[in-house]
Amino acid sequence: MKRGGYLLALVLAIATVGLVVVGTVWPNQSAAANPDAGARLASGSSSPQDAVNTLLQQIGRRDWSAAYSGLANKNDFSEAEFASDLTGNYGSLRTYALLDGFDVHPLRASTDEAQFRANLRWASVVGTFDDPRDLRVVRKGDHWQVAWPLMKEARVPPQVIPVNYLRWDVINRGPQDDWGTQDVEAPHVRIVAMHPVDRGGGVVILGELLNEDVVPAFVTVKAALLGANGATLATEDSFDKISHLLLPKQVSPFRIDFRNVRLSQVDSVHIQPSSSLVSASADPVIGIESQKLNPVPDASLTGELLNQSGQVVNVAHVIGTFYDGNGQIVWVADSYPSRALLPQTPVPFAIALPADVSSKVASYHVMTTSYRSGHAQ
Amino acid sequence: MKRWATALCGLLSLLAPYGLAQPSAWRFPPTVQAGTAFSVQTSGSGPATLYVVGTGDALQRSVQLGQSIAFSSEDLRNAGHYVALLVAGTETQSAQFDVVASTQPAGLSFIAKPSRLPVNQVNGLSGVVYVLDAFRNLLVQPQRVTFELSDPSGGTQSRVATTRNGVAWVKMNSATKAGSSQFRASSGDIRVQRAVLNVPGEPCTVKMNSHGAGQRIVLETDPLRDCNGNAVPDGTIVTFTEVYGGQQTTVDVPLKRGVARTELLARSRAVISVASGVVMGNEIRVTGGQ
Q: Could you give the CA distance from residue B99 to residue B82 in angstroms, rounded to a whole number?
């Protein structure tokens, strides 16, 4: 019995040493998808894949200096330009985003050059966004280096853009005002369309809200699903699937997602729009150009945002309403372009569409909401 | 015998708050006008404590029995039902009385709703007045209230209403012209004013014009007016849509100085339309890139 115990201890010790050796010689390559993977891989660029992984890990750690120094084409741009290509400028969504992960797929390879498609996933407060880049990797002596495909941000030439500003200021009732001193009236808003659908194991309420007043409105929409006995099954609001600020006669779509409720359980839907009067500006005006529906497999609506004003828009929110041939809303989706909107400079956007919805879409309407430092519009 | 005496004392103690223990010398007036001075004569001798509790008022005062208790005009201002207790040692006397609002209106609480409404709305505007005295007590006696609504074109609507239980109300029509109306309510020499905004309705038509500017086409609407001829207010969103080769471009432009203006790329065989709210405007077909 005692002899058997020694034997077991010996087997465990040999197995442990063996596993340590295996782990050292053949490290787990799946760690490459994690930008926080250890710096040990950073020194290795003996293969094109290693070079790409190393670079993306350095980017994930925001180690711009190390990442830049290892680039094959660093003479084409400065380290600051390289960093701002990844982290953005002008308080855009990118400036607040962190690299959450990446996927790397080889496209082709030769003895001196290889090409990869890297998809960088950035995490931001409004969700993740993808940043696909085609990377060329070249052999330099006994190691490989990545040539970074820098996307230079457009520079706006010095100019004067005349804008007639229009804004609404509100003086509300104060605490010193007597009882019965009326306040300014809340804007009148109206639900002009509503369509519940059963989707993905839950219920989705799609609709549109019109500001029929002559003043700007800050709007929200809440919905309650009621069962056959009148009991409330669930209550939700539209959160960011709506444009919260509506100028006079402007229409916003809204989408309210209820998880874990089936449409068959729902007897009625109680929708409650609410509005309040807010100070707002009618600018900036943003044109939505070259809108185009793309079929499956990458079903989406793509286009470009053109900021027609002279101000920088830090973050833009694009919301699309999609209708079938009968004019009924079949989907509401949104996206946030990761780059700031510079004056008169087009910025691309893409709104992803579920494949089954894409085949039903006959027409669509797109609107934008913009956020500027210290302002929302 | 002792048992009967104890029961009688207990009964008197219970009935004391309801005034049955009030001696004839403890004479409180049944009603007192808010903000008026009065006095109450007491009987007996020695020190006592007076408590007066009512709606929004409570006071405690040391008094001397046998002398009159004076209430100044500052003491009782809020209308309502009051209970007075005079406590001397173990003996308590009580009385109940009402403080009523004065008969003279001193203030109006005027609520005009809505403060913003479309032109030409019959009975679309309501005015409600609460007539109050100097101490903000509701005057329940009937009072005549005059309502006047002056519209932006200079006309005036007038109605007279009499308060019921302190409240008078009317319904008025909104003005035919857009702009600010003054809605006044008056009773006696008290006058209160509210601003009511008459706003234009939907645009009656939307018409745009275009001219080329290089590669771009400049689009501008005619001044937008509702069907009563009122200018649609600045800030109203006008949507321009250009459809071309399976793609489209849209711009939501706010009206400024009555017109909406934008520039779009002039694409060959594009169709440009314009709309504001639910009102569709005309279409322009671009030929040959212009």
A: 7
Any idea what the CATH number is for the domain that residue A235 is in?
A: 2.60.40.3230
**Substitution target from B196, B219, B247, B248 for chain A, most A beta carbons within 10 A:** B248
Domain B2-100: give its CATH code: 2.60.40
Q: What is the pLDDT of residues B92-121, one digit of tens each?
A: 888 999 999 988 899 999 999 888 898 989
Contact B70, B39 (CB under 8 A): yes
CA distance B40 to chain A (A): 35
Contact between A322 and A329 (Cβ < 8 Å) = yes
Name which of A179, A211, A249, A368 to mutate to probe chain B: the one with the most chain B Cβ atoms within 10 A of its Cβ. A249
The answer to pTM > 0.90 is: no
Contact state of B115 with A289 under an 8 Å Cβ cutoff? no
The hierarchical CATH code for the domain B208-285 is: 2.60.40.10
* Domains of chain B, residue spans: 2-100, 107-199, 208-285
User: N- to C-terminal Cα distance for chain A?
Assistant: 80
Answer whether residue A374 shows pLDDT above 70. no
Residue pointed to by tokens 């017109």: B259
Whether B2-100 shares its CATH topology with B107-199 is answered yes
**Same domain assignment for residues A194 and A243:** yes
Q: Is the peptide bond before B254 cis (omega within 30 degrees of 0)?
A: no
- Show which residues on chain A lie within 8 Å of chain B, measured between beta carbons: 164, 166, 168, 178-180, 182-185, 210, 212-216, 247-251, 282-283, 285-293, 303, 308, 365-367
| Sequence-separated (6 or more) residues with CB below 8 Å from residue A171 | A184
Which residues touch A8 (CB under 8 Å, ≥6 apart)? none
Distance separating alpha carbons of residues A145 and A70, to the nearest angstrom: 6
Mean pLDDT for the stretch of residues B4-17: 42
Residue A135: CB atoms within 10 Å? 20
How far does the CA of residue A143 sit from the closest CA of chain B (Å)? 47
- Does one domain contain both A133 and A199? no
Contact A286 B251 (CB under 8 A): yes
Nearest CA in chain A to B193: A181
Q: What is the pLDDT of residues A218-266, one digit of tens each?
A: 999 999 999 988 899 999 999 889 999 999 989 999 999 999 899 999 9
In this structure, which topology does domain B107-199 adopt according to CATH? Immunoglobulin-like (2.60.40)
